[in-house]
Amino acid sequence: MVPIVDSHCHLDFDDFAQDLPAVLERARRAGLVAMICIGSGSDIATAQRAAELAAREPDLFAAVGVHPHDAAKIQDDWWPVLDRLARSPRVVGVGETGLDYFYEHSPRDRQAEVFRRFLGLSRSARRPFICHVRDAHEDALAILRTEPLGERGGVVHCFSGNLDHARGYLDLGLDLSFSGVLTFKNADEIRRVAAYAPLPSILVETDAPYLAPIPLRGKRNEPSFVVKTLETLALVRGIPFSHAAEATTQNAQRRFALPAVVASASKLVLPPPAG
Fold first, then answer.
1. What domains appear along the chain, each with residue ranges and CATH number?
2. In 10 A of CB 275, how many CB atoms?
3. Residue 168 CB-half CA count within 13 A
4. Do 229 and 182 form a contact (C-beta atoms < 8 A)?
5. 199 three-class SS
6. Does residue 66 contact residue 40 with C-beta atoms inside 8 Å?
7. pTM above 0.90, yes or no
8. Both ends of the chain: CA-CA distance in Å?
9. 10-residue mean pLDDT series, the chain (275 residues)
């Protein structure tokens, strides 16, 4: 069994309220040594729940933010809470944040304003940022090229762009994270990016409960299913599954400065956290 990290899941959602212990046990049996729970729903309570979950489970970590869909809902008094949470020991990232023009539940200018403010929080809290970008890669890249990105950098989660977009993010030193979408039949461009990107810049994720990979599509996604995405990543890169798993685990440990417990559990000699 090789060590695996699910770099982006939403275990704080109600979808897991009834059977979270069983979900975590299946993940551990599948080889997962860490899961990053992204607390970025429609209100501040989501971030708080993610941080609380991470404080209870040794292999759970958290990120805190507000989804771009809900940028217009943010109240001024949310920011001090997010700032405090972002500095918690078990919180390893800021986000997800970014731009989503597919639904445009919040106005574009408000999304951009909030995105910039979360990039600022990433800098001050010394945590990597986690970008959600859908149908907005050019605008997201324009913001990222003009904002200081901070020493911890960031991740473009559930990468959905093309090769040119990938080159833009990689040139900024960001990681690309691939979800179950990598396995979908209509995802040839995503697979081309996964084959092109330098392996040290690649993470894997589930985005659970969403985007279950083939052949599990249509089911509630959960961290153990990330194995299927890793299988596809190994296939498109022409490398052994164990190589893909070890590399993405090392990359997640480095980007999110995951503590020694993860390195110990994975039985790997991992590089020290940056920063």
1. 4-266 (3.20.20.140)
2. 11
3. 17
4. yes
5. helix
6. yes
7. yes
8. 30
9. 94 96 97 97 91 96 97 96 97 98 94 98 98 98 95 96 98 98 98 98 98 96 98 98 96 90 46 34
